[in-house]
Specification:
Strand content: 15-25%
Number of strands: 10
Oligomer: single chain
Radius of gyration: 23 Å
Helix content: 25-40%
Structural class: alpha+beta
Largest sheet: 4 strands, antiparallel
Shape: globular
Number of domains: 2
């Protein structure tokens, strides 16, 4: 994978800001925005949006840094290699990135947040999520391998009064809810326990509880109960679901 003689598809905004041309360009953009009645920070948010567009318009770069590296990541990386994802060297003039070659059909996509992006496999499942902040003063990038399944919950009626809110456990395949993962299971609805509601409204009663008692009551919120239901469902059907490399060889969710 020899990309050394090709121009980088991702602008090194930090290095550019240290040149006369780059600094002058940023200042001009900020002044133009101010004259147009925009906020002083919009030049930065525009820079971040351009950075995301650059990242998602190429397939030869991924962050050089994993968010959390431990033994399980070694297994995940081996699984990526077996799938055909090739990792190369760090980019010489921009070591925030490493050279990569994606398997056929894999692609990089933006999320609704200008700093978060995903790598999808040929089946559209999110295999990697990665962060990239293009702002010149705090530029950073890192990535995380993802599990095949996600145990979460959703607020059924988030506009309701706190005492009436309901939560539902949700299991997704190939990405979180916000990433467009396929919902494969939903639980019954849960509400906050009576003790938790009392904890929030009766301060005198709450002061008489020990820290252990308060902690236990806080485990009985509707959202916690809903997510526990999702975890229990996955533990029974996919006991290794928390392992980053598990179950990806199965093309479809079948259980």
């Amino acid at each position: 994978m020899d990309e050394k003689n090709k121009p980088s598809p991702i602008t090194n905004t930090t290095a550019k800001s240290q040149t006369l041309e780059g600094a002058a360009g940023f200042l001009l953009e900020a002044l133009t925005n101010q004259a147009a009645g925009k906020g002083p920070g919009e030049a930065i948010t525009d820079m971040e949006a351009r950075g995301q567009k650059e990242v998602c318009s190429q397939t030869s770069r991924l962050p050089a840094k994993w968010n959390h590296h431990h033994e399980e990541y070694d297994e995940a990386i081996r699984a990526f290699l077996e799938a055909g994802l090739q990792f190369g060297e760090a980019v010489a003039d921009d070591p925030l990135w490493q050279e990569v070659e994606l398997p056929e059909g894999w692609k990089i996509e933006a999320t609704e947040h200008s700093m978060w992006n995903v790598v999808r496999d040929v089946l559209g499942r999110v295999r990697i999520s990665f962060f990239y902040k293009a702002a010149f003063y705090d530029r950073d990038a890192f990535m995380s391998a993802q599990t095949r399944f996600d145990a979460t919950y959703r607020d059924v009626d988030w506009e309701a009064e706190p005492e009436n809110r309901r939560f539902q456990g949700v299991v997704t395949d190939g990405g979180s809810i916000s990433q467009g993962g396929k919902i494969i299971w939903q639980s019954e609805e849960f509400r906050d326990s009576e003790d938790y509601r009392k904890l929030r409204t009766d301060l005198e009663w709450a002061r008489g509880l020990s820290p252990e008692e308060r902690s236990k009551i806080c485990e009985s919120t509707g959202s916690v109960l809903a997510r526990k239901a999702s975890i229990a469902w996955l533990d029974k059907r996919y006991p290794d679901w928390v392992k980053l490399y598990a179950y990806w060889d199965d093309a479809e969710e079948t259980r």
